[in-house]
Amino acid sequence: MIVRKCEQDGITLAPVGAARTVAQMRRAPVGIAVSLARMNRVVAYDPADMTIIVEAGVTLGAVNQMTAAHGQRLPSDPPQPELSTVGALIAGAKAGPLRLSEGTIRDLLIGIRFVGHDGRLVHAGGRVVKNVAGYDLMKVMTGSFGTLGIITEAAFKVRPIPPNYQLVIATFTNIDEAFVAAAKAAETAPLLHCDVLSPGFAALFDEARARVVMAGFGGLRVEVEYQGKVIADALGNATRILADADAAAAYERLRDRAPDDPVIAAQMAVPPAELARCVAATGAEFRAHAPSGVAQLYHSGTSAQAIAAIATWRELAHAARGHLRLIAAHPDVRAKLAMFDTPPPPALGLMRRMKAAFDPHGVFNPGCFVGGL
């Protein structure tokens, strides 16, 4: 009813969960916000089948609190999962350090429901992992930022929680050495995550003025004992190994923390071999998921400096055959910056045709995607 009325009257709308993702991106307000906060039920959970169906307003933290009782988790780890709703997780294509071992949310999503044009409820995928019926609308909706419809429900495959999680931390004075060591560690053992931090991030771990490599791993006790030794040898520098509560707390800081009040935050994705050169050239504080070729960049200078920085960062990413998108921008500079790269004309034309097919009246979160869609 709401969508149909908005289409009839030309009122724009934006779906919101915790109201964090869109609030950091929008240049201009929409007519109304559709809150999904009360759509927070777990519809079905089958631990034996390792699948779960939830409404879009439930938080990732709540999902994992339930599944942890069965030794399972939905292994997507954006910052502050207790504040990240499932709808935002999908629509914003959010991920964290665990992307190395678990992939991203699109790899875990097996079914979806959303409200589309004319208020119709659209369903794709299903409740089982091996479901190949119909169009793969799960991937279409992932990373769509609410511009194609309102996600109301999703089905995921969950995975076992690796036991005996431990974390190796190594410090380096040279950024190239840190990335080389991270790559060597990732080749040595089946890591859960492997990240390189700039000095500003390293200070969170009492390693000021250093570049820090953090390599997480888990498994059976005998496996963990062996892996800890070979990972420490691969990193080569002064290392320390954290276990149990200390390891969990350090991982949460890695996942959740960022510099205070940056003017802009962006995510760069390039081939892994190019990441060290690119992040070094930005001069920014960064958290790099090194073997995945992805890094979050933060700039805390003036508005003019931030605008110039984004231009430089984009040039670096494009020269390395990668891309860059803004995660957040201060309101003073948001209107002057493109949140996404501009794709080649054929790709942008396809996106425009998809937008017209899914949202012919242009009411779903307009201006919040590639090319102003």
Plain-language structure description:
The protein has 373 residues and is of the alpha+beta class. It has three domains: 2-160, Uridine Diphospho-n-acetylenolpyruvylglucosamine Reductase, domain 3 (2-Layer Sandwich), CATH 3.30.465; 166-256, Alpha-Beta Plaits (2-Layer Sandwich), CATH 3.30.70; 264-334, 2-Layer Sandwich (Alpha-Beta Plaits), CATH 3.30.70. 34% of the residues lie in helices and 24% in strands. It has helices at residues 2-9, 60-68, 86-91, 99-102, 105-108, 137-141, 175-188, 199-202, 221-235, 244-256, 272-282, 303-319, 331-334, 345-358; strands at residues 13-16, 32-35, 42-46, 51-55, 72-73, 109-115, 121-125, 150-157, 159-160, 166-172, 193-197, 211-217, 239-243, 264-269, 285-289, 294-299, 323-329. The strands form four sheets. Strands 13-10-12-11-15-16-14-17 form an eight-stranded antiparallel sheet. The protein has a five-stranded antiparallel sheet with strand order 3-4-8-6-7. It has a two-stranded parallel ribbon with strand order 1-2. The longest helix has 17 residues, at 303-319. The protein is globular. The mean pLDDT is 91.
